[in-house]
Amino acid sequence: MSTLLERPDAPAFLAGTKLLLIDGKHVPARSGKTFEVVNPATEEVIATVAEGDAADIDLAVSAARKSFESGVWRSLPASERARIMLRFADLVEENGDELSLLETMNNGMPRAFARSSVAGGANWLRWFAGSVTRIYGQTASSAVSAPGEFHVYTRKEPIGVVGLITPWNGPIGTFFIKVSPALAAGCSIVQKPSEVTPLTALRLGELALEAGVPAGVLNVVPGFGGGAGAAIANHPGINKISFTGSTAVGKQLVQASAGNLKRVTLELGGKSPCVVFDDADMDIAIPGAAMAIAANTGQVCFAGSRLFVQRKSFDKVVAGIGQVLQGLKVGNGLDEDTILGPVVSAKQRDRVQGYIQTGLSEGAEIVSGGAPVDGKGFFVNPTVFANVNANMTIVKEEIFGPVLVATPFDTLDEIPALANASNYGLGGGIYTTNINTAHKLAARIETGNVWVNCYSMLDASMPFGGYKESGWGKELSADGLDAYLETKSVWMKLS
Ligand code: NAD
Fold this sequence. Notes:
Blueprint: E1 20-22, E2 25-27, E3 34-39, E4 44-50, H1 54-70, H2 78-94, H3 96-107, H4 111-132, E5 139-140, E6 150-158, E7 161-165, H5 171-185, E8 188-192, H6 199-211, E9 218-220, H7 225-234, E10 240-244, H8 247-256, E11 263-267, E12 272-276, H9 282-294, E13 304-310, H10 314-327, H11 346-361, E14 365-368, E15 383-386, H12 393-396, E16 403-409, H13 415-419, E17 429-431, H14 435-444, E18 451-452, E19 471-472, H15 477-482, E20 485-493
Parallel strand pairs: 7-8, 7-10, 8-9, 10-11, 12-13, 12-17, 13-16, 15-16, 17-18
Antiparallel strand pairs: 1-2, 3-4, 5-6, 6-20, 11-19, 14-15
Helix pairs in contact: 1-7, 2-4, 2-6, 3-4, 3-6, 4-5, 9-10
The protein binds nicotinamide-adenine-dinucleotide.
């Protein structure tokens, strides 16, 4: 049997050591170190990647700073910057087969999911390309001076050099959610993808160059959190960090950024509630709640991992979700009919399996799933727990796998206390046919995103971000662009 790398469609990109992309050139790490990248469906090593650390981040920051100061990007006419971003989006789509193949081989996600990440990324680029020509300051009437005494206005200016640190669960999506507004604002970038999934970011860096993004504007430096990641957080030449990852690391970054008071945007973990009322359309609610926890094998920051079902429907909904989950085709994401790929690594599989054991030992009851999956690949059985209480570890902590905890409730007024009993506040789902229930509850759930009769919707036009310990600031939308801009007030005395 041939290995994946011998497949006729195996990307040529995987051949040879993948180097860092700094100042428009492929370069080895200064240390000469490399690390291996594994396909989680087969446990096969698929690439060897240069391991950036502090010395390489220094080089990347210098290149980014030089490009920023020279104005090769930020001082281009806005329409020209937009044109290059649109060309980048076209190239992303034209290379979509290769990108989605790399994403599936590296992260394990089903190919269809990877394709939609590529399409989504191209759309986000286009939306932000459209905003480049619509960056406005304001004029104001001074409250204290006579009319005509001063001319006052604000300017929006790019923040400078930005460090963009991304996780492994959605490498393409988290790349574009940060790179698109950063490019639109005119910033220069040092991007560090996760050490677990560095491949697509490196390829996207090449496509950006091909599209005409000048050398040094988008530098991609794979490496580990404690090496390249910490070096970005501590670097005095970086003006802003945008980070997606765990809440624990997010808190460390806040402290590390204090040195030069970097601006910080954080997209962190979640333990999102999904609420099903008796009056819900169960043909929508049951598969919707099932996929809210199963999509990307539960490795989604806003996964609907805490299910609340109105008591009369509890048994039916929980059994229905179990049935949907057990019916999902598990397998290698490269098989077109796979819905549930592996989790990303052996470490992640063991972590999820460990939580399932903890749930049992704390007295929760498994309604479906639970058993470990034998054989090659880091697969996990989607699992639903009932008989849980708010003090249980599996109810409080983010598992980041396909594990759902289900609790019954009686009235709408109970839900805010139940749903908001979490340090996190990222996503929330409501399934009901009563418009009053939907709006009343949407206002009382303490999360940055609420979906009614749907789940996981994202769009470039809508702000995305978390309340509480799920993050700081917003991505996507005009708010997401503003996070890469400084506002300058200009006062001009007229005589
Ligand atoms: P992680 O926090 O371990 O790593 C994320 C990134 O930070 C990686 O690139 C890693 O190398 C880097 N990093 C680790 N330690 C660092 C340090 N000390 N300094 C600087 N960088 C460091 O997270 P992960 O395991 O890759 O991803 C899973 C987590 O990400 C989950 O908690 C998930 O909820 C969260 N996430 C959040 C969102 C969101 O939008 N809110 C989206 C995706 C994932």
